[in-house]
Design goal:
The chain is 79% helix and 0% strand. It has twelve helices and no strands. The radius of gyration is 18 Å and the shape is globular. By secondary structure, the chain is mainly α.
Length: 231
């Protein structure tokens, strides 16, 4: 009876993770469509577009890779930019780690496949209030990964038809998703200070070095600020 109760509790927690994450990742559904449409329009096949998403699963780095490919830049610059941009996931893992001590490594490894900006934002917001739970983390990761891949497949299918994503406003979906994630975290002066500082650093880096440098320095700045402030 006790084992059954534990299983039922984990199932409820799993679906709670799905429920809490769904609104945010659903708003990012159009991000995947935009990525896939751009990928098809620069010459990637349906399979290549989907495979890049399945294996990398990092929206920002995927867009950066497409930008380089569009310029005819291939090979190590694409790999390096992907590593630099996705390096923020290491910091996400370090931040979530203390809340998931004692959890099964298999579950954590499975969930880490979809450790994204969205799932991190939802999970850290809950864990700070109620403590860590791998079932919640897995539910959050599952809905995020599933919807993202479905959006990419949808975009890859319609991407063969040429149309301007900016003209129909799809490019704003990416920005709207991150605004929502940011608002979840702005509960303290430390968070507000971090937002302002990262905003300044990222803007200057964007002006003088481009989006890859902006993403990298912005992530490092946030990490240093959080370490200094003890969060």
């Amino acid at each position: 009876m006790e084992a059954t109760t534990i299983i039922e509790k984990k199932e409820r927690t799993f679906w709670l993770g799905v429920r809490d994450t769904f609104p945010i990742v659903a708003s990012g559904f159009f991000d995947g469509i935009v990525y896939a449409v751009i990928a098809r329009q620069i010459g990637l096949s349906w399979g290549e577009t989907v495979a890049l998403s399945l294996l990398v699963n990092g929206a920002s780095s995927q867009f950066a890779a497409l930008g380089l490919m569009k310029l005819g830049i291939l090979g190590w610059p694409v790999i390096l930019s992907t590593l630099l941009i996705n390096a923020r996931h290491i910091i996400y893992g370090l931040s979530l780690g203390p809340y998931l001590k004692g959890e099964g490594k298999g579950k954590l490894l499975l969930g880490s496949v979809s450790l994204s900006d969205e799932t991190y934002g939802v999970n850290i917001h809950r864990f700070k209030r109620y403590g860590g739970d791998s079932s919640y983390f897995l539910g959050s990761a599952t809905i995020d990964y599933t919807l993202w891949q479905l959006s990419v497949m949808t975009g890859a299918t319609i991407g063969q038809f040429t149309f301007d994503t900016h003209a129909v406003g799809l490019d704003f979906a990416f920005l709207a998703t991150f605004i929502g994630l940011l608002m979840l975290q702005l509960g303290t002066r430390t968070a507000w200070g971090c937002m302002l500082l990262v905003g300044i650093v990222s803007t200057l880096a964007q002006i003088y070095g481009g989006p890859i440098l902006a993403a990298f320095l912005g992530s490092i700045t946030a990490m240093v600020w959080g370490g200094w402030k003890g969060e």
